[in-house]
């Protein structure tokens, strides 16, 4: 397995802060918790829904591999998770697209919204 270089931006921890019209008192950003942890395979994220409603969360990122040039096309990746109230799940943002080469997770965005 290749070594990994993980660049985690603050955006990874910044949840979408859209207010629900049916739950105006509780913003999604206040009740969904994301706990990141670096691992050899990528960035493990434990997502916990503490909201009173179901949420759908999406993580989008790009993978950059060792020896990429300016002409190398981006490798956009994404994961989606749907969580009922009081449920949690672990997801993995990985750099498997690079195989054995060193890689980096970049341009990461994490967004959660209420499921209606």
UniProtKB/TrEMBL annotation:
> Signal peptide span per the entry?
1-27
What is this protein's name? Secreted protein
The yes or no answer to whether the keyword Signal is present is yes
The UniProt keywords, alphabetically, are: Signal
């Amino acid at each position: 397995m290749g070594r990994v270089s993980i660049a985690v931006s603050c955006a990874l921890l910044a949840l979408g802060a859209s207010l629900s019209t049916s739950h105006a008192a509780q913003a999604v950003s206040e009740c969904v918790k994301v706990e990141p942890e670096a691992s050899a395979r990528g960035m493990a994220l434990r997502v916990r829904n503490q909201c009173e409603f179901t949420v759908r969360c999406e993580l989008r990122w790009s993978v950059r591999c060792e020896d990429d040039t300016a002409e190398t096309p981006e490798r956009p990746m994404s994961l989606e998770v749907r969580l009922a109230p009081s449920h949690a799940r672990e997801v993995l943002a990985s750099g498997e697209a690079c195989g054995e080469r060193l890689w980096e997770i970049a341009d990461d965005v994490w967004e959660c919204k209420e499921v209606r």
